[in-house]
Fold this sequence. Notes:
Elements: E1 2-5, H1 12-27, E2 34-39, H2 48-62, E3 67-73, H3 77-90, E4 96-99, H4 102-111
Parallel strand pairs: 1-2, 2-3, 3-4
Helix pairs in contact: 1-2, 2-3
Amino acid sequence: MLRLCLRGRITAPEITAFVAAHNDAIDSLAGGDYKVWCDLRELEPLDPECALVFEQAKRYSQSRPNFRGSSVLVSSSTIGLQHRLTSIRSGVMNTELISDDESALREHLRAVYRRSG
């Protein structure tokens, strides 16, 4: 399980560093299966540039054959909508759940299993 937590207002350099750390963490799994738990409850809306950079992290997961699915915990409908759009554009939406309901997110991670190829 790759656990992510973003809080507050994120700058372009910060989101760029986050994406690099995200991708490095995935690479360190050496092909082992993984799912993502992303806590965005305290995140402020991303500016358009940062949203595009964040989308790169989702695209990276989508491109990996060992990615199995993700859950995104939000407390704001604005954040939920923003991340739904980046998930659709990056191709992960069919294996991702975005919600404020932690139990639904946990159940989603138990059940989801994206098959590559």
